[in-house]
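Deliverable D4.2, example record:
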Amino acid sequence: MNDGLSGLLGGEDKHILSTGNSEIDKKIADGLPLGSLTLIEGENDTGKSVLTQQIMWGAMKQGLNVDLYTTEMTAKSFLSQMESMSLDVSDYFAWGYMRLFHLHMVGFKWSKEEMDGILQRIIDHIRTSKAQVAIIDSLTMFTEYTQQEAILTFLTNCKNLVDHGKTILITLHTYAFQEDTLVRIRSICDAHLMMKKSLIGDKYVMVMEVVKVRGARKTTGNLVSFEVHPGYGMKIIPISMAKV
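Output generated by the structure prediction step:
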């Protein structure tokens, strides 16, 4: 266990957050910049959570601590899903190197004031946490209870945290936001990955488009197509087969 958590290996770029998958890394300038705010956007079932879980795996393999703030799953379902992708993080979870904070309470309705308070508490928690990487999966739930201006304020606060060394990833569903708000959200973020589905023959595959990565060259428009196989994880599909 200590070997797996001993920090960054000598040959790795200490300024890059690897996904742990070399084929994906190549499409995003060898990985996402540490100290950045990344937006992972898409509709339902396009692989947003799968990609964030892959990135979490890469972060922990680099010796980074990770906090996951999720409205999507419980600790049990998260660990089960990670194991099904051959990304067993149970030891990291048990030792506290990876922590999960479940944000959704079924049947409970937040007021605008309460939700604004939750967003601020998340910011405060990220600021004081020992974790270098924070993931919010997803931001969509918050749009049901608060004004979109509060979401933009939250993201601006996230940007302030990454300026002080935190690495933050946020997922959202495109349908939940007005177009002008999406434009502003995308502009705040340092990296923007768009998740889609593409029909190949009689089946759908997931496609990640690299819209932008701060400081990277020749990455905009790069595509990565993949399937998720139980017991195997993400399987990259040749891009010539999956143009969207």
